[in-house]
Design brief:
Blueprint lengths: L4 E7 L2 H11 L9 H4 L11 H14 L8 E6 L8 E9 L2 E8 L2 E9 L18 E2 L10 H5 L2 E5 L8 H7 L1 H17 L5 E10 L8 E10 L4 E8 L2 E9 L9 H4 L12 E5 L4 H12 L3 E6 L3 H13 L3 E6 L6 H5 L8 E4 L15 H25 L3 E8 L1 H4 L5 H20 L3 E8 L18 H12 L2
Parallel strand pairs: 6-7, 12-13, 12-15, 13-14, 15-16, 16-17
Antiparallel strand pairs: 1-3, 2-5, 2-8, 3-4, 4-5, 7-9, 8-11, 9-10, 10-11
Helix pairs in contact: 3-5, 3-6, 5-6, 8-14, 11-13
């Protein structure tokens, strides 16, 4: 826990996101589009790290901070979710001032300010290296790691200083715009779409040129952790920007691809309901079952376009698929009504954001969020199937986290363990419903994809085994 004094509190809302995107030019969908953001490691729309830094700097200066700032180094440790209450704290160190941002007890970022002057590092173009001018695109560029590692150029910087008047007075309008330009460089140009800003080490110098522009060149690339160090100079600042090149959203095999694993009539005549079938493991199950001749209905909560894309792929591959909107937190009969004929099989892939920030050994609010989806939601849909009286098999996906319990996943593991008990007792006590439960390993999905490449078992193999078992 920081011992710094509180200098400001703010709840970043979507209006703040849109404002900063407009004035900086950083329109990366991670910060603006809930549907796109949920297919990243963040899982939700998150605040521009540089925006939070500029806000903290403004708070510090307005609270009486030292007006002479020669540089800043920043480390962005955790995402700030839109709607979080963020607190900025300040403390004095031997070398300057330390600012930190917190959400509850969780530290999000650290900003170390230098009050002593030091030389601005030169960029290669200062000694004659020719760089092309790159306009800020309306949509972010999508560079893979190798292409991003070779990137260099000059980017125009938008004027934003009027929005941060105390900071403009301390470091000048050009450098204030240059800091915002760092966000735009990473989020829109290099690496662009698939980026996560990790940190900066910047020195301010009014003589750093070009004016109104930032010259940049990747000076170090670490493919093992997909990390780039980008040298920057211009617009009154110079130094290094560090960014991850995150993996793009996971693309699942097509229904046509699945025909290599199943026969065209393996699941003929089965009527299957897949809760959460618009992406991830539910999408895999839907395509495998459809490729084998099953009549598939998939549900979505917010990703209608994703569900429609899965449906189109199944139909194009010769299968049958319907889509429905479904919220696992509400009564199934009022949502499904007469939309379904017979249901022989249920696959319950409803989920919520898995990786949730907490500093406590146990957080009851986080547990309740998981419990509502993984336990109460499964109970509701199984009761619905029982009331239909037709007889159905229901698959419940648990997780190896129940036994492995990675850090900060206590609540998730507890909810999944409760779901396992519920699954077993539904088979014993709920008429017309037989359950199949499997503890799944970490499989490659949008939620589990980390920044470094991690070897994971084949999702197709794991889901195929489950589908085979459900159809024995």
């Amino acid at each position: 826990m920081s011992d710094g004094r509180c200098i400001g509190r703010k709840r970043f809302e979507m209006s703040d996101q849109e404002m900063f995107a407009r004035i900086s030019g950083d329109r990366n969908p991670l910060h603006l589009d809930p549907l796109a953001a949920r297919r990243t490691q963040a899982g939700v729309v998150v605040v521009h790290g540089v925006h939070a830094m500029l806000w903290a700097l403004e708070c510090w200066l307005e609270s009486g901070g030292v007006a002479t700032v020669f540089g800043i180094s920043a480390r962005f440790d955790k995402f700030i979710e839109v709607g979080d209450l963020v607190e900025a704290r300040a403390s004095t160190t031997r070398n300057g001032t330390r600012l930190e941002t917190y959400s509850g007890r969780s530290r999000l970022a650290v900003f170390n300010l230098r009050h002593e002057e030091r030389a601005v590092p030169a960029l290669e173009d200062d000694v004659g290296f020719a760089l092309d001018v790159i306009e800020i695109p309306f949509e972010p560029r999508s560079l893979d790691f190798d292409a991003a590692a070779q990137s260099a150029g000059i980017m125009q910087v938008q004027e934003i200083a009027s929005h941060f008047p105390a900071l403009r007075h301390a470091i000048g309008g050009a450098a204030t715009g240059g800091l915002a330009g760092v966000s735009t460089l990473v989020g829109m140009i290099t690496p662009g779409l698939h980026s996560i800003l990790a940190g900066i080490d910047i020195t301010f110098d009014a003589l750093a040129t070009p004016a109104g522009q930032i010259a940049f060149k990747v000076e170090r690339a670490r493919p093992d952790v997909r990390l780039l160090d980008i040298a920057v100079r211009g617009c009154g600042l110079g130094g290094t920007v560090r960014t991850f090149v995150r993996p793009p959203p996971i693309t699942q095999p097509t229904t046509q691809d699945m025909r290599a694993f199943v026969g065209a009539t393996d699941f003929e005549g089965r009527n299957v309901l897949i809760i959460g079938g618009s992406r991830g493991l539910g999408e895999l199950a839907a395509k495998l079952l459809a490729a084998g001749g099953a009549n598939v209905t998939i549900t979505y909560l917010v990703g209608q376009s994703e569900a429609e894309a899965v449906q189109a792929d199944i139909v194009e591959g010769g299968g049958r698929c319907e889509i429905l909107r479904y919220d696992a937190l509400h009564d199934p009969s009022s949502q499904l009504g007469n939309a379904l004929d017979r249901v022989d099989q249920l696959y319950y892939f409803a989920t919520t954001k898995i990786f949730v920030r907490t500093e406590d050994a146990f957080d009851s609010a986080i547990f309740q969020r998981f419990y509502q989806v993984y336990v109460e939601g499964f109970s509701r849909i199984c009761t619905y199937l029982s009331d239909r009286g037709e007889g159905a098999r229901a698959f419940y996906p648990s997780s190896v986290a129940v036994t492995d319990r990675p850090p900060s996943m206590t609540e998730y593991a507890m909810a999944k363990a409760a779901g396992e008990i519920l699954s077993a007792d539904i088979s014993r006590f709920v008429p017309h419903v037989e359950t199949v439960m499997r503890r799944l390993p970490r499989l490659l999905t949008d939620q589990t994809a980390g920044t470094p490449w991690i070897e994971t078992p084949s999702g197709v193999d794991a889901i195929l085994d489950i589908v085979r078992e459900m159809n024995r």
